[in-house]
Structures are given as structure tokens and as C-alpha cells.
Amino acid sequence: MLNIPEAIYKHYLRLKSEINQHNHTYYVLDDPSVPDSQYDRLMRELQEIEQQYSQLCTPDSPSQRVGGVALDSFSQVKHEVPMLSLDNAFSDQDMLDFDRRIKDRINVAPSEHLSYACEPKLDGVAVSLIYQKGLLIRGATRGDGTVGEDITANVRTIKSIPLQLHGDDHPELLEVRGEIYMPRAGFDKFNRKARKLGEKPFVNPRNAAAGSLRQLDSKITATRPLEMCAYSVGQYQSSHKPDSHFAMLNLLGKLGFKINQHMKQVAGIDACEDYYQHLARQRDQLDYDIDGIVFKVNDFKLQERLGFVAKAPRWAIARKFPAQEEMTRLLDVEFQVGRTGAITPVARLEPVFVGGVTVGNATLHNADEINRLGVCVGDTVIVRRAGDVIPQIVKAVLEKRPQDAVPIVFPERCPVCQSSVKRIEGEAVARCTGGLFCGAQTKEAIKHFASRKAVSYTHLTLP
Ligand code: D41
Is the pLDDT reported for residue 463 higher than 50? Predict the structure, then answer.
């Protein structure tokens, strides 16, 4: 082992801190501050020094986020402080009852307004992260709340998780709890690529997050666009403890964690209802899936007095949103011809209320997707609608297949002009070969030409 000259060591620490800072602004604050090329240059420089002085290559080095050797299995870990679950509320009345029960228990007049912390309920995987003397030493899944799996190698690859707490006044021991999730953009990108390559897409972002964390090879996890948002603490040893949930989350933000930007503290259960309505309207515009809102009694002393029943705290509740996945029946499949002749199968569904709207159509993408889903006309299917993307069929419920279910046959001739349909080797899309002879292609071409995007483009390219 070589001795490190002081100047190199100092330079190394500066590089490390700069890279950590970039990861934080990019992945926690969602604010890309330096071009990728600059980031890559810093990282290469760091790695070169680590290659020469191997003692620097510790688990908290940002170079270690690419993953390491694959495991044979995950070991089990016990949660010293159990990870509780959440009770659900499905109506305004459930929320009023929740508020009333709490006030009864702590002898507060019904007319008083309790302070509640409100936050979106992210749809991902609940995890626990332990920091000793400021360093990440263990990451685990929630499991059944008492015993989970050690996924330390995988969580280290997630760039919004600090490997080292920020500042120098951090707790001796800190267990952060939060949700690891896959933002919709990353999920859609992953699935688009999988479909193009004829591979299996993920059913929804929650499965994508769970599947990515279940990888024994952390190098695979490292390629998945996962994020973590902190929502509470377990073990906590420090000279100072915030006195409310809201203050604790703000502290976690200062220590380097991502905390939800929509989190808010409000007074009284009516304000909780307003918050719920407000977020329900914003749900489609968020970058990630949420399945409801979590409301927590803000004051830690009150939380302690309230305690928990069975495995859920009395001081918290999750008010659910309409489901983003529902079952319905596939009535028919139509084949639409686009401007470039691409043929897209569109499912006609028995209308169903999903993700807050009534859905009657869903895309089936292409022939590969139809084969992969193995879906028939007449089948009961699961449709998913999240964000403003086109609803998708994610699964056929085979147990409910009727006797007269009809397999979907991809047409060999264009449904509009009868020209032959061709599929280029290695491409997922099938196309009508009719060109402008095809009525559908002509119509779409004119629509495209007249569209604002195309017109402004033409305008820009004209001399
Ligand atoms: O966003 C979430 N999924 C979320 C989950 C959240 N924002 N807060 C949560 N708070 C708790 C308690 C109140 C028990 C600390 C939770 C969960 N629990 C939770 N996630 C999975 C099981 C329980």
C-alpha cells in the first residue's frame, strides 16, 4: 500500500466532496448543475487516484455506486425498532373518525385543531437505512416489519441516498425510513426500451422498484432509475431530537435526503381534507405514482401518548386515491394506421373508472406485446392509467378467460387500404406498405403537416 502525499489526499477529498455535491443537486434537489461531461471528468479523476491508492476506495466513495460483486442470496436482518404499517381511510367520514378517536384519547376538545403533517404516499418499496457516525452501513427492506432483507449493496447504487450524511453535526446513530421508487419518466423509458428489444416490460413503477431492489447483482440495480424519499426515522441517537415530524423531515433534508416537496403541516382535519383534494387534482402531473396521502399527528409527544394498535400507529392514516389499476373486459381490438404506416393495436374496453377517469381504450403497442400478454378478445384484463400517458393493458386474468375467448390476429393487410403489412427484422412495429396510396397515411400526413410542431419546423428549415 502506497503512502498518499498530502497534496493528493487533499485533492482527492475535494473531488469526492464535489462529486457528492453534484449527486445531491442532481438527484435530491432535481437541479442539474453541471454538464455530464464535467461530472464524468471528476469521476475519472477520482477513480484514477483510487486505483493508485487502493486504501481510498472505501464503501462511501461515490465511485462505488456502480455496484459490486453479485451475492448468492440476501441475508435477513431484524429491525430493532419495528417498521409499522399504515391504517387506511377510504372516505371523508373515515378521516373525521380518525381525528375524533385521537382527540378522545388525548382529552382534547372536538373543536380544537390538531397539527397534522400531510405528505403524498409514494408507491414503491419501504426501506430502512442505518447511518453510524454519519456513514451508511446498512440498507434493508421492510419485509414483514420485524425482519427484512439486507440490500445494502443495492441501496448504495441509488444516487439520491447519501453514502455519508451532510454537515458535521449529525446523529451518532440514525435509521432513516423511506420509500424507494421509480419515477414515471424512468419507468416509461425502461419499458419503451424493453418493448423495442422484445423484452418483458415492468407492470408498474412499484413492481419496477421492487424487481430492481431484488437483484442479487447490484450492477443491475445501478442501471435502474431509482430514487428514495425519506418519511420517518427509526433508531435515533443524538444530543438533539426535533419535536415534530415536520421538523424531523426538514432535518433529514439538511442531512442530505430527498424529502417530498409537497409535504405540508396543517391545522385541523378540514385542512387535511383540502390538502387531499388539492393533491388529487395534481396527481397526474407528479413525476411519480402516489396511491394516496399520509396524515400524521405532527407532535412527537402526542405520537408517543397515542402509541399503536396491532402493528399500526394510532397517530397516522393513509387516505387512498382511486386505484390506478382496475379490471375490465377486452371487447375488441382495432388496428390503427399512423402517418408513417405504423400499425398500432388499440384495445376497446368495457368502460372502467381507473386513475380518476373513465377509460374505454388502451394501447396494446405492437404484435410482440399482444403475444407476450397472451390476451384474447373476451378476456378480463388489468388496465393501468397513471399520469397523462395512454392507458395500458398490463395483464390478462387467465383464471377468468371465457370459453368463447377469441385470439387476436395481427392483420396481414392494411385495414384501410388492403396493402400488405410488413415488419422489418428486429423492429417491433409493423407497417402498411401503401404509402400515400393509403387513405389513413395520407390523412395523418396532412394532419401532421398542418400541426403546429410540423409547421414551425418547416418554417425554421426554409431559407
Ligand atoms: O410515502 C409512503 N409510502 C409512506 C409510507 C409515508 N409517506 N409515510 C409512512 N409512514 C409510516 C409510519 C407512520 C408508520 C412511520 C409510510 C409508512 N409508514 C409505511 N410504508 C409501508 C408500510 C408503512
Answer: no
Contacts of range 189-198, beta carbons closer than 8 Å, 24 or more positions apart: 189/225, 190/224, 190/225, 195/365, 195/366, 195/368, 195/369, 195/428, 196/428, 198/368, 198/428
Can 16 be counted among the known catalytic residues?
no
Locate 59 and state its grid cell. 464503501
- Dig out the grid coordinates for 25 from the structure: 443537486
Residues 274, 390, 186, 180, CA torsion sign: positive
Q: Which residues contact 111 (CB under 8 A, 6 or more apart)?
A: none
Ligand 1 and 318: CB distance under 6 A: no
Does the pLDDT value for residue 457 go beyond 60? no
Question: Can you tell me the distance from the alpha carbon of 182 to that of 186, in angstroms, rounded to the nearest whole number?
Answer: 7
Q: Which residue has the cell 396511491?
A: 291
Residue 232 Cβ inside 6 Å of ligand 1? The answer reads yes
pTM of the model: 0.90
Query: Coil, strand or helix: which one is 448?
Result: helix
Indicate which residue of 121, 258, 296, 395 is catalytic.
121
Using alpha carbons, select from 201, 390, 364 the residue that is nearest to residue 284.
390
User: For all residues of the chain together, what is the average pLDDT?
Assistant: 93
Instruction: Give the Cα separation of 275 and 118 in Å (integer).
Output: 8
**Angle, alpha carbons 74-77-81 (nearest 5°):** 150
461: pLDDT strictly greater than 50: no
Residue 290 main-chain phi, psi, to 5 deg: -130, 145
Q: Whole-angstrom distance between the N-terminal and C-terminal Cα of the chain?
A: 65
d(CA 411, CA 4): 69
Q: Over the stretch 325-359, which tens digit does the pLDDT of each residue have?
A: 999 999 999 999 999 999 999 999 999 999 989 99
Residues 6+ away with beta carbon under 8 Å from 50: 56, 57, 61, 63
Q: Which amino acid is at 459?
A: H
pLDDT tens for each residue of 233-249: 999 999 999 999 999 99
Contact between 195 and 160 under an 8 Å Cβ cutoff? The reply is no
C-beta neighbour count of 422 within 10 angstroms: 12
Residue 50 phi, psi dihedral angles, 5° rounding: -65, -30
Q: Is the CB of 179 under 6 A from ligand 1?
A: yes
